[in-house]
Amino acid sequence: MNLDFFFTPKSVAIIGASNRKGSMGYVFMNNITQAGYEGEIYPINHKEDEVFGLKAYKNVKDISGDVDLAVILIPAKSVPGAMTDCGEKGLKGAVVITGGFAEVGDEGAQLQKELQDISERYGIRTLGPNCFGLYNCNIGLNVSLALGSPERGGRISLITQSGAYGMAIYTFALDHSMKFAKIIAPGNKSDLQDYELVGALGEDPESNVICILAETISKGREFFEVAKEMTPKKPVIVVKTGRTEGSRRAALSHTASLAGNLEAYRAAFAQSGIIEVRSGLDMIELAKALDFQPLPKGKRVGIVTNSGGTGVELTDLLEECGLTVPELPEETQSSLKSVLPAYASPKNPIDVTTLWSQFTELYSQSIAALFECPEIDIIMPILLQRSAMMKEVVESVRDVVIHYQQELKIEKPVYVCWVSTREHLNNMEILQSAGIPCYEWPERTARIAGYVSGYADYLEQIDNGKEIALPPSDELDKEKVASILSNVSKESRNYVLEPEVKQILSLYGIRVTKERVCSSTDEAISAANEIGYPVVLKVVSPEVIHKSDFGGVEIGIKDDSEIIEAYTRILKNVKSNTPDAKINGVSVQEMARGKEVMIGSVKDQDFGSLMAFGMGGIYVEVLKDVSYRLAPVTGYEAGQMIEEIRNYPLLKGHRGEKGVNLEELRDMIARVSLLLVDFPEITEMDLNPVFVNEDEAIIADGRIFIN
Ligand code: ADP
Ligand code: MG
Fold it and tell me: 546: CA distance to ligand 2 center in Å?
């Protein structure tokens, strides 16, 4: 997607430009003329002949040269007219700053629709409406409400749904020596969607780190696909706000009552390698780490500190974030011993003690030793109080890092943990302006390192497991599945019965219980003898969705006489609970054994089929021990789903107990995901329970809803 006419327009028309101080038209003229933009600027104003010393035009159509981009500031009701003029003039892009569209209700939504029609008719791509505007810092293009002309040479780009918050984050970043490439506030996203903006930044050689601050992401599935292509090349960081108490659907299936829209977002982020962070501050601090420093090759952190206590806290927090602080190898320790005072610890954290007079050497030599140590992947100097206050110490840290990273080309990231008073922030600046990021307090340092390491992990595994798990396509009988589903629809049902579900699954190469639907006790007895005792009996009825709630399931039936009793009991229970239920028969099935897990799915409005995996049985909703991914999942991703649940150790085997066949379970999840992709009419699915034991994974119950 090429959006150069937005980012590097040769000429810009400001529709609604003004000389009147305090007006929007003034702010925009001031911004664009101050930031050093070198293209043509055309003010459009009905009354004035000149705005900001530039010739003003009554209409874009009066301009004789070509115009790439229009920035529209005039009242909402006049915007469609101005857009039409832009269309006739042949402009490629428009940034509609004006508010009063879909965000204010039906009338505004109508106006927005009109705007979108004009965009489509003339092929003008539109950013907004109701947006904060856009910056290309590297060419001094500021067509936004934000003041200022940032420094050039930036590589971080930001898409921010909240214009004001995005700009606040951006100014915070400026205080930390960070530089930006592009900043875009997409507003109501009537035309340009998130995935297009991200895609454009993905192709932009000036954007190395992409930050997104979003309440909602438009066209979720497309966004997911674009992001997946991009993250192996450059990191994408997202903070998704509006996370709490998402709407939970009125639910027929367990999965639907568990999985909301937020879970779908989370799955999309995890699967596409997007780094999801908790807050705007995390986002910007992580962008700093990724922009300033190389990625780590592992998780082993070496710490140098002048405070033992801080070193211990940082160690704890790092381990909580999935990193390690290993004891240094003998060789490194002995080289450190020759430098450090006799009572100092060379183990890791390296404690330089309180020997202030020698901090300069102690820090720089310890850092040098960590650069040279092959068993360390990340270096974290703690600069606390006195070491942070002493400018010469800070400079020596900077110099040794630059020496190793730039001259000796050792690609090991350094994150400084900074603990000092405001008075010494200028010392922090010495490091940050040299590209060495500082984080205040161990907690922030550890958190950011944790995020970085999560991204490095994602990159490591990217090629794993792609080949696994899907059954050979000649094993799949999709036509048969389609005909079962169309029969269900023909009977005006949206509920697919357990025997039908199992038939569908087995057509996808998925192991289900051996079973037969019977319509008499005699038939049931012969089925049971064929399958082999013990067996399970279950009612089959379109009116009975939760079978055991109605006394419709009997397990552990051991012989012919028990069959007769259970059969009779089931029919009696169902008839007394739901007298009108149509009973198709009683299913006699193999009694599966093992641990009960569940595989489910719901259809998310933005991202498509969202799969869930968790421990099964009746407690799934209470325990909420569930992991999520968007379908389709690779075998590797299915494996991650299994490993992510808290009860994973129970599946893996505990105290000498043999673990379950995880490979079969993984394959099963991947195959189910393929079914979901092939049959998008499946809106909800619960396979619960699925039994897993040392040998195999078997589906014992399944329901599907279709639309
Ligand atoms: P429901 O419609 O109530 O979910 P299920 O078919 O899941 O009915 O049966 C209820 C419970 O009975 C299951 O959670 C499981 O513990 C047990 N069960 C069902 N089918 C089998 C089977 N084939 N083998 C072993 N246990 C089973
Ligand atoms: Mg069940």
Answer: 7
Contact 282, 448 (CB under 8 A): yes
Q: Residues 355, 357, 363, CA angle at the centre, nearest 5°?
A: 70
What's the pLDDT tens digit per position in 618-659?
A: 777 777 899 999 999 988 899 999 999 999 999 998 888 889
What is the number of the ligand 1 atom nearest to the C-alpha of 547?
Answer: 2
What are the helix and strand counts (H, E) for the chain? Answer: 25, 30
Predicted confidence (pLDDT) at residue 58 exceeds the cutoff of 80: yes
Q: How far is the CA of 614 from the centre of ligand 2 (A)?
A: 13
pLDDT band (50, 70, 90) for residue 249: very low
**CB of 499 within 8 A of CB of 669?**
no
**Whole-angstrom distance, CA of residue 74 vs CA of residue 16:** 5
Amino acid at 135: Y
Burial 667-684 (b: 16+ CB within 10 A, else e): bbbbbbbbbbeebeebbb
Q: How far is the CA of 652 from the centre of ligand 1 (A)?
A: 23
Q: How far apart are CA 563 and CA 699, in angstroms?
A: 22
Neighbours of ion ligand 2 (CB under 5 A): 688, 701
The answer to whether 646 and 474 are in contact (CB under 8 A) is no
Residue of 513, 535, 598, 701 with the most ligand 1 atoms within 8 Å of its CB, for mutation: 701
Task: Please tell me the number of the ligand nearest to residue 515's CA.
Answer: 1
pTM score, two decimals? 0.91
Bridge partners (DSSP) of residue 439 are: 417
Cα 205 to chain center, whole Å? Answer: 23
Whose tokens are 């529209």? That residue is: 72
The pLDDT value given to residue 363: 97
What confidence score (pLDDT) does residue 623 get?
78
pLDDT tens digits for range 131-143? 999 999 999 999 9
Q: What is the DSSP string of 261-308?
A: HHHHHHHHHHHHT-EEESSHHHHHHHHHHHHHSPPPSSSBEEEEES-H
Q: What local confidence, expressed as pLDDT, does residue 256 receive?
A: 61
- pLDDT reading at 83 higher than 70: yes
Ligand 1 centroid to Cα of residue 495, in Å, is: 18
- CA 613 – ligand 1 centroid, Å: 17
DSSP helix/strand/coil, 594: coil
pLDDT digits (tens, 9 = 90+) for 456-503: 999 998 877 665 555 566 677 899 999 999 999 999 999 999 999 999
Bridge partners, residue 40, by sequence: 11
Ligand 2 centroid to residue 595 C-alpha, Å: 14
Give, for ligand 1, the residue of 548, 589, 599, 618 to mutate: max count of ligand atoms closer than 8 Å to Cβ: 548
Binding-site residues, ligand 1, Cβ < 6 A: 513, 536, 538, 546-548, 553, 555, 589-592, 596, 617, 689, 700-701
Q: What separation in Å is there between the alpha carbon of 689 and the centre of ligand 1?
A: 6
Which residue in the block uniquely carries the two structure tokens 């009683």?
586
pLDDT at 247 over 50: no
User: 180 by DSSP, 3-state: which?
Assistant: strand
pLDDT of 248 higher than 60: no
Test site for ligand 1: of 550, 555, 589, 597, most ligand atoms within 8 A of the Cβ: 555
